[in-house]
Each structure stands twice: as C-alpha cells, then as structure tokens.
Amino acid sequence: MSLSISKATKKFGDFTAVDDISLDVSEGQMHGFLGANGAGKTTTFRMALGLLAPTAGEVLWKGRSISYADSPYIGYLPEERGLYPKMKVQEQLVYLARLRRMDKKQAELGAQEWLERFEVPHYANKKVEELSKGNQQKIQLIASLLHKPELLILDEPFSGLDPVNVEMLKRAILDFQQQGATIVFSSHRMDHVEELCDNMSILDKGKLIVHGSIRDVKRSFGKQNVRLYSDADITLLAGLPGIEKFTPQRSGAVFRIADESVGQLLLTEALKLGPVRQFALEEPTLEEIFIEKVGRTDA
Ligand SMILES: Nc1ncnc2c1ncn2[C@@H]1O[C@H](COP(=O)(O)OP(=O)(O)OP(=O)(O)O)[C@@H](O)[C@H]1O
C-alpha cells in the first residue's frame, strides 16, 4: 500500500476530531473522501501530510511518515487557499515549484503549459488577488501538481468553480492520475466521487463508516432502485411488500427495493395495471448510501 493510515486518532483537547481510522490507498488509485462538514476530512489530510501530529496511530507514505523533506513528491491543495495574494501568478507558481526542488526552466515551461491548458495564460503577470475565486482555484491546483508529485492530496478541489471549470479540472486530475499519481480528494459532491474514483470512504463524526471500492460499497448496500414508467396509476404499487421508498416522477416512479426479487414482483403487479413503457433495475447512488449511513445530505 502506498498511503497507509493506521488507527489514526486526533484529539483537540477533549474533542475527538478523527477517531481511530484505518485506510489504505494503493499506488495509482484515486480515492474519494466524503463526509459532512466537520467530519474530520481536513484533519486527516493534515495528519497525512505531517502538518498535524496524530494523538494516536500513524500515517505512512510508502512505509514512512511524510515530512518536509518529501515535499518534492507530495502535492497538497489546502481547503483554505494557500497562495500569496500579492504575488504574480507565474512568478508564484515557479517560486512554489522551486521550493519543491523543480528545475527553474522546467517550472517556467510547466507553469505556462498549465496556464494555457486552463485557459488563463493572460493572467500570468497578474497578482493572484486580482483573479476571480474560480481562477484562483485553477492556480491553486497548478501549484499543487506543477512539480509532478507522486501523491496528490486535494481538499475540495472543485469548490467555487462553475460547471465548465469543474469539467476542466476533473479532466486534468484524471490525466494526472493516468500518469501514475496517487490521488486523494475530499468533496461535498458525491457525483464527483462516483465519476472519478476507484475507491472511496465516508467519514462521520471522525469515524470511518464506509470504505472500499465504489462497486463493493454499492453491492454491499444491497438495496436497488427500480425505475418504472407506465401510463397507469402506479402509486398503488408503493404499498407492496419490500418497497422502501417511492419517488414519483413525470409519467413514472423510482422505487427503492429491499432486494432484487421485489423488482420482479413490482413488474408483475405493474403489468396488471397496464402496459409498462420502461422498467430498469438501477444500483443505488452514493448520495442514497450517504443519506442512509450518515442520516443527512450535507456531505
Ligand atoms: N485546530 C483545531 N482546534 C480545535 N478543533 C479543531 C481544529 N481543527 C479542526 N477542529 C475540529 O475538528 C472537527 C473536524 O474538522 P475538519 O476540518 O477536519 O472537518 P472537515 O471534514 O474537513 O469539514 P469541512 O467539510 O467543513 O471542511 C471540527 O469539529 C473542527 O471544528
């Protein structure tokens, strides 16, 4: 395993922010970290990066604790933005890459390439504080990966971005993974985790309550959805045994079912009411799993 969090606990006084969590992220994986506000995501990242000492347990990268000496191999996009507001964009990117021991010429070329890729080359000589929040976020992402780290930790990389920029950054992060990087990111958007990640975990009040590959997490949840479209009044079907939730849709409904056999019963009963135009068994979304496990939606 390349990133290994082992029985890590962090207390602030009497308050336990992270409670005995163990988690492994293999080399080259993209891992999504979900959790409500205050669940302990940032605290876990800070422990992983050696910025906070765990109260108990340890966090290892390739078998060793991360220290300042590893900064050439590690990239971090912090939640509170960490750029110098008065420094010019290009100058700042090169300065930060140089701190991580990148060659000056390479850093200059790399910064230019990334600014072009993110469609902001005209901001190279502007001060960071003159940029919009979304554009500052692009610069922050470039700063975290310009030096080509092996491990990239991103704390809410997509916050404050419009949908077009979200797609642009997603693509860049995926490409970076394809070049071999190990990436962990936190997000309040479950669809982003669903789309980008191999593995995921959910933190709730400092505890790791779900952990695994997205496929396994969905399978072990057991429940499925049935999407059923019919012109008949299918609200009658909501009361069948094994139906856990009924969500009406235009000319149809989505039923949460306890297991697959309920789907067949639902189809049989729906056909008795009239022709069925569409019937599909769907796996649960991460959002449904999150709501059920954490009990609320504010991931
Ligand atoms: N330095 C600190 N001193 C005291 N309490 C802290 C400190 N840092 C974090 N906490 C507390 O630890 C808990 C976890 O915070 P953390 O920032 O790790 O959560 P998070 O999951 O990243 O939340 P968010 O999604 O809101 O960013 C919170 O209740 C927070 O108030």
Automatic annotation (TrEMBL):
Pfam family, one: DrrA1-3_C
Ranges that cross the membrane: none
Keywords: ATP-binding, Nucleotide-binding, Transport
Gene Ontology molecular-function annotations: ATP binding
Record's keyword annotation contains Ligase: no
Top-level taxon in the UniProt lineage: Bacteria
Domain ABC transporter residues, every copy: 3-230
InterPro entries named among the record's database cross-references: AAA+_ATPase (IPR003593), ABC_transporter-like_ATP-bd (IPR003439), ABC_transporter-like_CS (IPR017871), ABC_transporter_ATP-binding (IPR050763), DrrA1/2-like_C (IPR025302), P-loop_NTPase (IPR027417)
Sections of the chain in a coiled coil: none
Membership in a protein family: Belongs to the ABC transporter superfamily.
Protein name (database record): ABC transporter ATP-binding protein
Lineage: Bacteria, Bacillati, Bacillota, Bacilli, Bacillales
